[in-house]
């Protein structure tokens, strides 16, 4: 009965978002309340359960996601992303432009919120396509594959970061495992698959071409690369440090403080503010305006994450979460595959990868401890499932179609297939890692 109740709630969520056009935040909130009542939470306790779930979820995530959005916006507006792309293209030469853009997409995709990243890198793709007279889909789709993988797999992006919190995973180890899986996933779903798409003719509108910044207008290469990669470097060092077995308590306390994900993002933003802003003569008031715009960009995502926390808490407070875990076990599907499958079904139904990942997480969370699943791998499994089969109910599908000026058929063949390859290969990588990781 518990599984049926949750299934009906998910169907209601799908109908509210896709048919009734209710914003995902409000839809999740409504479904959380209905689920609480249907699962037997007393009438006077439902609101408290919803509020607790929202508060607990956002407590530790708000700082990380907001600071990450600010850093990403700074990299986008300062010209650092264009500098990174220019350096890689010039270093690799014209024959390796596709691979240079993949690397650039991966580097700038780590700190950039997906919506900002897409709008930023697509004009860069078109500028290079025009300059070197290369098919835009052939060089562009691999770069977007890199962007998609970072969005679905790697902290500090909102969805993976929220999943790390929900599963009590380790941010640094999730990042390391994510990068290990991301590399072959991007290569196969990006450059290799794009070789089959050379026949797709894309004539992007000149309006979408980026205005080339001069050398004087862009930061130098070192500042651009170090600012974009600093969160990754710090989080990876934080994950490696415990394995050094340092015995000095004072040093351990200092490292524990510095390696906290919120402090990592604060350090990265402070460095970025100086390297890409103050040192180049930018006023703090100008930079503050950039940061305010960044917060506006992610407001909706923050609300969706908060509402997903309410749904999770309702399942816990009703006592049904452990029942669901037991019932799922009878299906005889490995937990990592189950997480991927639930996220994939919701993604195909709703279109939103963020909602798909967080809703799936609320359902499978009790399986983590009950069946001794590696929480870092579950983050990646659900992240992969939340990317599968992007189609006409996904805003990313239409962004890609319109920017690249393609038919729906060619969009399905290129964009939808690329996203599906990312999801399937990502799951394969998770299952392979699961053999070696305890």
TrEMBL record:
It is found in: Cell membrane. This is High-affinity gluconate transporter. It is a multi-pass membrane protein. It comes from Mucilaginibacter polytrichastri. It comes from the Bacteria. InterPro entries: Glcn_transporter. The chain crosses the membrane at residues 30-48, 60-79, 99-124, 136-154, 174-194, 221-242, 254-278, 298-316, 336-365, 377-400, 420-437. It holds the Pfam family GntP_permease. One of its GO terms (molecular function) is gluconate transmembrane transporter activity. Keywords: Cell membrane, Membrane, Transmembrane, Transmembrane helix, Transport. The keyword Transmembrane applies. GO terms for cellular component: plasma membrane. Its main location: membrane.
